[in-house]
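Data availability (excerpt). The following record was deposited with the supplementary files.
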Amino acid sequence: MRATSSASLFASTNWILMMGIVSGLIAAQWKHEALPLAAVIVILALTLFKARLIILDFMHLRGERPGLAAALLAWPVFFAVAILAKSLAAGLLDTL
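Predicted structure:
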């Protein structure tokens, strides 16, 4: 492993840890209540960014296999869209 690669991996690790802590702090603001839609969107966006960093840096797919990286990133995107759709549907049903 080259020094530049090691430094990049260290930086990615710091970003992933920071995003995990921020997501936990956002979710902890509402202890026994449902999260507001804005908080859910922020947590999902941080989760997708973390997944991208893990897939590209820790699985060493940055620039090597773009098709595999896109396919692996499609899974978290699919589930994030499903979670967001369910949250929106529940919010719409509550207003009716």
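Summary of structural features: Residues 3-95 form one domain.
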